[in-house]
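Human: If only I could read backbone structure tokens as easily as an amino acid sequence. Take your time, and here it is.
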Amino acid sequence: MGSVSTNDGEQASPPNQQLTAVAPDLNAVAETDAAAAGTKGRKPRSEHSTGLLFGLAAYGLWGILPLYFAILEPAGPLEIVANRVVWSLLFCVLLMTAMRSWRPFKAALVDKRTLGTLSLAAALIAVNWLTYTVAVLSERTVEASLGYFINPLISVLLGVLILKERLRRAQWAALSVAFIAVLVLAFGYGNVPWLSLILAFSFGFYGLVKKNVGSKVDAVSSLSVETLVLTPLAGAVMAVLMVQGQATLLDNGPGHFWLMAAGGLITALPLLFFGAAARRLPLSMVGMLQYLAPLIQFILALAVFNEPMPLERWIGFGLIWLSLIILTTDMLASYRKLPQPAAA
């Protein structure tokens, strides 16, 4: 299978980059807790259950992200994304300082190949973030969730078209069903679901680009470099909005200011959780968890935002879910066939 994707710009794929991306502070906390439990005669929490909790936290936070964007009104998509970039960089700087992990970040900056790759990744994730924010604020969260539901299928497609990977029959079947689903949804929407496709392809290409970095750059350093690359443009956008009187950061009270500033924490925290989960869980489990975020988004779109869901959309989504079942079943079967490492 192609890759296991997240909602906010990190991917895990065998043997791709994110399975080796770890959050040292979180891992250290978990190990300290386990040691403490052992000294007190209690059975320490298993690595698997700890990883599962981290995974649920990561995908759960990505899933409820539309609620965060909704409470940022009257801020528009450009202002939200610009602030998200700047505050994410500031949070990462504080985090790297606290963790004393500046070395990978500096190494990425001085390596021209790595810096160029992460700069391209930054452009792709900026498109993804902006499209996602536009979708939520324009009451099209259903379309946003569709984009992340079909992302694994897009990753498989890109593997065929660009990496010249050979697909198994089940993967071809999943792609065929997904293509029919897009046609059904295009009929239901009256046009091609462009927002969904932009989200899926931008994130799919993002994962493809990040594959070239591999495990050389950890998750926090990667996010730091990407937001650093985007910060001059983000700062310019914020300045222009302020000059035009369209910025809300400083004009809507301290509550609104701190909610906007929280974008850094909200961006980086699930990434750290994911890094801790990917270290502890098998790839098959991470692959199953990835569907939690778009599922939560889909439920929020219907239950909280009251977005319409006519019959043809249910049919289209049903076909997408069928294709994902085929793809996931094939992935699990293929994973079980892989040689397992010998026990120490």
Notes: Confidence is low (pLDDT under 50) at residues 1-44.
